[in-house]
Structures
1.
Amino acid sequence: MDAVKPSDEPVIRLEHVEAGYPGRTILRDVTFDVRRGEIFALLGGSGCGKSTILKHMIGLNPVLGGRLTLAGQEWTRKTRASLCRKIGVMYQSGALFGSMTCLENVLLPLEEFSRLGRTARRARALELLADVELADAADRMPGEISGGMKKRVAIARAMALEPEVVFLDEPSAGLDPITSAALDGLILRLRREKGMTFVVVTHELPSVFAIADRCAMFDKARGRMIALGAPAALRDGSRDDFVRKFFGRGTVNGK
Amino acid sequence: MAFTDSVGRSVVKFRADFAANMAFLGETVVAALGLIFRPDRFRFGDAALAFQRAAFDGLPIAVGIGFLLGVILAFQSAAALQMFGVEVYVADLLAIGLFRELGPIITAIVLAGRSGSAFAAEIGTMKVDEELDALTTMGLPPVRFLVLPRVAAAMLAMPVLTILAELAGLVGGALVLQLMRVPTVVFWNHVTDTATVFMIAFGLAKSCLFGLLVGLIGCGAGMRAPSTADGVGVAATRAVVGSLVAIAVSDGLLAVVCYVWSL
Ligand SMILES: Nc1ncnc2c1ncn2[C@@H]1O[C@H](COP(=O)(O)OP(=O)(O)O)[C@@H](O)[C@H]1O
Ligand SMILES: [Mg+2]
């Protein structure tokens, strides 16, 4: 783990949250905090509701019950605009806009929200791409670059407005171990340099141990959170069968 | 049991669809009104691109169909009018038929098939790829970004395409009449005598309305594309079918209104 010490101040707080979609509950009674400056991992097998929880946190879907706050505020019509400014999201597929170059993708949030002038915006976008080591891909279209590169561009775009919390949905899914480790290195470096909070969805154990300060684990069958704490502590200390299996064999349902 | 069950399901689904459509419409109207105060927030570049595609892609088809329609109508009606030796009135028939009714409606059908489905597929693909979510969490409403430029483009492309299709239809009719030894000058004089500015303007206004419907329905279908493997295809089909129904219904309503007000 690296030297950054997360504070105890919660940035995101879930209290007895019922997660899911209208008419379909996926997880019940989810309670945990994400502290400022930490890298927090959401763990669990495929389809257990990690992305569902993430979508609640980033205000895409309202929670079905309980209370979820980000920087002390719930997602409502009134708080939406200001909360959106506090977060950056990298989606599972990258979700780059296919009709724009990589640079234009990173420029978009700057054009819409920053007060920088035209040349300053461009310089800033190039700087962000350089941060993810993709300065030379600036003028290429998302369709022409690899999956790992797309995710790095998406991270650059998510960081563009210097958000307080960056959410990453499966950054390492579909990547080879080396690219995936490089991405972990990037996340650690960005946290060290910018002091942002990261919430990372993943089911890759090496990645969890490499970057996460704490993690929450969910079980699809029981429909609730089954563990919360530092990854090493869960691996060594948990009595829950599912948690032990998850860490012991590192596989759930063959994934 | 199965019957009542499926009827019940359809009713529930219809209500949900209706509510979703109204929500989408409301959101679009609010976004459009918002532009009155911040016109600089309109995505002119995207609108220009969508217009270019809608107009250029639809052009050969709209003009081709317009021309053929003119030829067919002229032949069909000339056969009857010839019996009375007044085949020159084909020109009057073509002018009224094309400007009032056929021009806008065939162009709208071309636009629905060509651009409405493309809108649905583009936006549907973006939805499946989480690009709509990405816009939303960046604080950029997808309606302002994706829907308004396309709807505006469709509304602007329609009158342009309609006029060109109508002219092509007249050219087709003129050619047929020339075969029947009616000089083009005579044909043209009959057209200009029959067609009023009001008639042409009314037809173009109607074509704008059709463009609005095709744009809204195409984009709406894309925004609500189901997140299944064939979701984009489903959205494109819904866009075309929905547009055709909307065009037919609104045209029928307008015809009744015109009759009542004797326009
Ligand atoms: N839009 C949706 N509506 C209803 N159910 C959904 C929707 N999206 C996902 N689900 C269901 O929610 C469950 C959890 O999905 P998700 O959170 O995506 O899992 P994962 O942990 O792999 O990210 C799955 O069973 C999935 O079928
Ligand atoms: Mg997921």
Note: The radius of gyration of chain A is 18 Å.
2.
Amino acid sequence: MQVLNPTTEAELGEMVAAAHAADAPLEIAGQGSKADWGRAVALPTRLCLAGLAGIRDYAPAELVLTAGAGTSLRDIRRAVASEGQHLAFEPPDLGPLFGKAPDDSTIGGVIATNLSGSRRPFAGAARDFFLGFRAVNGRGELFKAGGKVVKNVTGYDLPKLLAGSFGTLGAMAEVTLKIVPAPETSLSLVLIGQDLVAAQAAMTAALGSNADPTGAVYLPDGMAGHHPSLAGHVGAGSATVLRLEGSAASIAYRRGELERICAGPSMYLDHHESTAFWIECGALQALLPMRDAAIWLLSVPPAGGADVVLALRRLLPDCRYMMDWGGGRIWLAVPGTAPDAHGSAIRGVLVDGGHATLIRAGQQQRGGDHVFQPEAPIDLLRRLRRSFDPKCLFNRGRLHSEL
Amino acid sequence: MPPPDQAALAAAPRFAAALREALGPAGVITDPVALRPYESDGLTAYRQVPLAVALPRSTAEVAAALRIAHESGIKVVPRGSGTSLSGGALPLADGLLLGLGKLNRILEIDLPNRCAVVQPGVTNLAISHAVAADGYYYAPDPSSQIACSIGGNVAENSGGVHCLKYGLTTNNLLGLEIVLITGEVLRIGGRHLDAGLYDILGLMTGSEGLLGVVTEVTVRLLKKPETARAMMAGFASSEAAGAAVAAIIGAGIIPAGMEMMDRPAIHAAEDFVHAGYPLEAEALLIVELDGPKVEVDDLIARVGAIVASHGGSGLRVSESEAERLTIWAGRKAAFPAVGRISPDYYCMDGTIPRGRLPEVLRRMTQLSAQYGLRVANVFHAGDGNLHPLILYDANKPGELEAAEAFGSDILRLCVEVGGVLTGEHGVGVEKRDLMPTMFGEVDLNQQQRVKCAFDADLLLNPGKVFPTLRRCAELGAMHVRGGQLPHPDLPRF
Ligand SMILES: Cc1cc2nc3c(=O)[nH]c(=O)nc-3n(C[C@H](O)[C@H](O)[C@@H](O)COP(=O)(O)OP(=O)(O)OC[C@H]3O[C@@H](n4cnc5c(N)ncnc54)[C@H](O)[C@@H]3O)c2cc1C
Ligand SMILES: Cc1cc2nc3c(=O)[nH]c(=O)nc-3n(C[C@H](O)[C@H](O)[C@H](O)COP(=O)(O)OP(=O)(O)OC[C@H]3O[C@@H](n4cnc5c(N)ncnc54)[C@H](O)[C@@H]3O)c2cc1C
């Protein structure tokens, strides 16, 4: 495989223009070390954007940061932490899930996958913090959209469209993000030994209360113990974990609100332990032992999370799961070699809406169009895709056979 | 606007008859007198009576109306409540105005999933009212919220004083039903978060009625904060007030609302509502904090200290809900208050990096002298969104044109200092011709190609947002720059 490593926007533009002229498809990569995502399709040339790196402008008081799209997430985290700020959408580190080194994503890769962590329902997704970009489209043209201020409605909101587009609409050279103050401190309540239905009820009640949690996850029996931060506390039992963030005074009050709603055995994780737990949670610590299973990511109406899980367990008794987002996000590990990794069965369960994406699976399970579940008709998506990349050069076939 | 299409005008009677057949006689207006009320939106300087008005009562009727228009080659302008301040709902002489006002039902309130499903004609405030008894609300709160429709909010990606903390419309939506110009109905999202692939929900939001017609909206509901308290203080300069704002954010505090007014706005508001605003101040800062009482009390003390250390004087903190509302009364009434001191005013809406505020205000004062027109500023200080109100008298020859030229200069200034043309009101017709100050030709062409993916014949709300209408076929062509690729040493194929 040929690898192209542009180090300037102009070079990036020329490389894509040349690919356009030669009708040569390109794999668009951040770090370039992860070729496993999406449908298993091999492309001859990789365009690696890690060379477009560096923080260009960071004005903490304006809540705005502009960086090369190839800047590592690590560098951005470090820069904003030094100003007491953070990326509120809490991008998770999925490296370990793919047997890769932790912590080596680029910010472009994070945005292109719209990858968000446990705080998503409360603070927003990557897309909600993505203010503007400069990118090269599939014609080799450098274009920009959005802006560098936190409030802007000038023109179409193309940043929303590029977020989660998996590199198929543009190769991003530069991104501008909204950065916000990090909470002063945090505390997590762990409810020990709840069954799925009780945990769902507790999470739904907590999310509708003035406790104002910013994390609500359920790790069933046998799964919670995989978390170093919980081991020794929960044994083989389950854990429902609810996070509170803010000032100490505020947390002291809101914890009382949580205790009013939640009965049964419990314990607290202090700020330090809580921070460690939620990082582990983002890295899917509980699922890591399921090395060979296919991993699905479901987004569903949150209050119905437990019902979806119950239906899935009836269909796929061997599957393991964890629930995040108060029931709205289900991570599912499905053993076996079914060619579609049981995609149609899983989607058949989503009667109240939602979608399922195949995050990890062997090559032979990622051949078909079941990997992603687009919500709009494919011909509209194809027209949209072509409006940016008329020859479908970028990541051709990786999302869908027709994209 | 380009001259009306004669063929469309000639086809009008047949078109209206087809519409009547689909929507019933009460659903279509063609009588010139009855068309009058639709001739403008909130930007009243622009007026145009439409070819016809259709008032569908269901998604099926919206789809039918669009299909008929598409087949007849007739343009369509969607309209919610007509409060747009950028002329987004300005009709076309050769186009159908599609009023969504009859789609005004709240379809479902789903508290366990903290969302509501509503039709597009439901007003913004009606949603919050419907769930208030249960302790919930819909967060984005444009000042026009009694009147503006949620469909219009989606189309404009509207904000409000609370969007610093709670986000704009786009951050508070879960799902949409959309009808494309062909009559095809799409359902995007639902009660779950984030898209399975391309974020059509995000793209539709703020697309100003150019991509599709919104026929159903699923909004997120938030739990009402237990307490909200407001404080206000006067400052001797806008620099000092701006420094206080930066220090509050620098201290890690994101208030529920943070608003600034300049001297002319303070005077106009105080004369109107007698809220006790400091008339000697050059700038007034209003900060609202919300959340649990302990948290709010703590933050009020911290923000109060920051304000005082930055020269804020006459600090007043609300001790009751009535006092909180009094502090807000002048700000909320700023537009009508300015309306009292001037026959007409023109409301602008640029965003700037907040740190550039003193410079922008200074240059605005110079422009005010140059144009001989007064300007009053209200300002969403937390997020840098300026609302300069230019005072003029439309009855004086040339003043409207001067006000518009002054407004354009202000927006150019916003872009020059690193900001944008519009923070929440949209481009519409008003700022259309300024788009090239912010975007190059390639940028605009890319946006117009997105339009082509939805509406290849450019029938939905044409003439808005883009300065030049480019036909889709024309946009498909490649520009070859001299037929040569530079840097022959770079790896190629
Ligand atoms: C469905 C799915 C599958 C995943 N599969 C894997 C996997 O197999 N291995 C793994 O380690 N992680 C995977 N992840 C995790 C995710 O890719 C990483 O966490 C991401 O943040 C890594 O960043 P990166 O820089 O390495 O990007 P990459 O892994 O190189 O790329 C991720 C995606 O972003 C696009 N992209 C990257 N940079 C840009 C840019 N500048 N402009 C435009 N598009 C860009 C790529 O085309 C690709 O679609 C997956 C995530 C999802 C949601
Ligand atoms: C006094 C006053 C105060 C205001 N304050 C604020 C404020 O604080 N913040 C703010 O953001 N805005 C404010 N506005 C502007 C305006 O209220 C908003 O833009 C609002 O969202 C417009 O809603 P509407 O229903 O009146 O839409 P309309 O004016 O009818 O239409 C606006 C645009 O949306 C399109 N549209 C409408 N409905 C649909 C639909 N169902 N599907 C597709 N397209 C549609 C139209 O084609 C048009 O382009 C204010 C306006 C006034 C008059």
Note: The first helix of chain A runs from residue 9 to 21.
